[in-house]
Q: What sequence folds into this?
């Protein structure tokens, strides 16, 4: 294949990837916007300690959800498309997913209610946390079934329904009932009650859309063969998802286990802000795996490497300016949530570096998986999860929540660099060329511009004025250096 042919084919593949990325990123921007406002309300009215208790509640629930789903969400992503032409089999797999999740979530919810004092004693050791756990245990089945329904939308390729319910309706409902309860003066108990109401309403909305707008509206009694096939796939996925939890959330869990609710609150705000930088990567990852699998198994390796490089460069470019802004203005950004959260500026700085590295390596993890290295991917996930847990324990005892950030940022950076190295060693693909220097130069220029505004301005004025001029400096520098035609084509496809 010639370079011109690879380029032409690559643009077609890039357009395919961008179709899902654009819709997904719109939904995530809306979701993050609602979430940001909700968190600002909670931090302002609850303070660091009670906000930390609320945050820790969500983290504990996310761990329990790994077991209540029992891999059901990923199973639907496989079996619903696989049996698109076999209606009975499709309904049987859907029935198994919901019945299993209902049974598992009811058992877990009962266990949380009965074991709330014990859970509190071994984590935050706060009577208020135990009370809130008991109050909100009822929402576990509703949250589990909502997540399962969201996966069903993705499995039948209805990203519009997924975005409408998961990214718009759910965060909007949470803002109204959780943020509203706290703003009205009901404090942490009000937030817990709002969490229950929002969980129930979200599931009702999701099920109404599923039943009325899709053909997934029937229940079929599964055969023994159906059950064996389903659980043979779903049960191992539970351990993979557990490894993912250790990799992504164990730091926050251990901060609560070893420190205080206030430390959890400060730490979580820094994590929330830094994860905004992963939005471009998450968006392009929606369809990149499918395109990568097709190109790889069709033997179009030159085109795949070209697509891999272009997507990685664009992800890095889109993440770079907000990363520089968060690095330069870390204290001012955290001050938006309240003065008590400013002490998390070093945590935010560490996570910004880690997330920027995540963007720099692009979809390397999915490329490994789609090129028949799924067991290596599993080993990467589990190894990094265990290492993250060990480092968190050691460094938290030594440095407090700064140690947690240092441990997690180190593991995140290391595993991403290892992944891109594995792709190069095993497949010979590298996403990097001289064009990566352009966004780097633009990032340096924008950083200097924003830093210059720290002298005459501060607080919100600094964020608006300095950030605005920094963005102009970034875009002008990119324009002067020249934007690649493939990047322009890809951005145009995303917008359209």
A:
């Amino acid at each position: 294949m010639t370079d011109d042919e690879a380029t032409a084919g690559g643009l077609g593949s890039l357009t395919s990837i961008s179709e899902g990325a654009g819709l997904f990123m719109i939904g995530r921007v809306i979701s993050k916007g609602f979430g940001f406002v909700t968190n600002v309300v909670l931090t302002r009215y609850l303070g660091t300690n009670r906000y930390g208790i609320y945050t820790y509640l969500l983290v504990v629930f996310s761990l329990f959800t790994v077991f209540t789903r029992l891999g059901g969400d990923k199973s639907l992503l496989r079996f619903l498309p696989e049996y698109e032409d076999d209606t009975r089999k499709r309904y049987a797999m859907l029935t198994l997913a919901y019945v299993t999740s209902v049974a598992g979530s009811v058992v877990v919810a009962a266990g949380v209610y009965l074991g709330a004092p014990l859970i509190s004693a071994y984590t935050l050791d706060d009577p208020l946390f135990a009370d809130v756990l008991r109050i909100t245990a009822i929402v576990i089945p509703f949250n589990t079934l909502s997540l399962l329904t969201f996966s069903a939308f993705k499995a039948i390729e209805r990203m519009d329904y997924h975005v409408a319910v998961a990214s718009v309706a759910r965060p909007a409902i949470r803002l109204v009932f959780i943020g509203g309860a706290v703003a009205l003066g009901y404090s942490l108990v009000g937030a817990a009650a709002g969490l229950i109401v929002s969980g129930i309403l979200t599931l009702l909305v999701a099920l109404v859309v599923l039943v009325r707008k899709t053909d997934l509206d029937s229940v079929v009694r599964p055969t023994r063969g159906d059950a064996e096939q389903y659980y043979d796939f779903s049960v191992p996925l539970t351990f993979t998802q557990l490894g993912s939890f250790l990799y992504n959330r164990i730091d926050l869990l251990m901060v609560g286990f070893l420190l205080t609710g206030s430390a959890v609150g400060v730490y979580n705000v820094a994590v929330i802000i830094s994860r905004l930088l992963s939005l471009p990567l998450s968006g392009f990852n929606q369809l990149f795996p499918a395109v990568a699998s097709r190109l790889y198994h069709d033997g179009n390796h030159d085109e795949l490497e070209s697509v891999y490089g272009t997507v990685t460069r664009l992800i890095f470019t889109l993440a770079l300016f907000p990363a520089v802004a968060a690095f330069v203005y870390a204290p001012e950004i955290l001050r938006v949530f309240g003065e008590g959260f400013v002490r998390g500026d070093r945590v935010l700085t560490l996570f910004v570096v880690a997330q920027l590295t995540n963007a720099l390596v692009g979809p390397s993890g999915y490329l490994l998986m789609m090129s028949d290295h799924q067991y290596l991917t599993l080993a990467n996930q589990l190894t990094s999860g265990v290492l993250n847990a060990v480092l968190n324990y050691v460094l938290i005892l030594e440095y407090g929540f700064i140690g947690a950030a240092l441990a997690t940022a180190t593991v995140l950076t290391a595993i991403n660099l290892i992944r891109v190295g594995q792709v190069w060693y095993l497949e010979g693909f590298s996403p990097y060329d001289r064009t990566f220097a352009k966004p780097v130069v633009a990032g340096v220029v924008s950083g200097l511009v924003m830093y210059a505004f720290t002298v005459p301005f501060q607080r919100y004025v600094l964020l608006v004025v300095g950030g605005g001029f920094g963005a102009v400096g970034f875009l002008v520098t990119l324009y002067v250096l020249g934007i690649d035609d493939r990047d322009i084509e890809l951005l145009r496809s995303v917008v359209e």
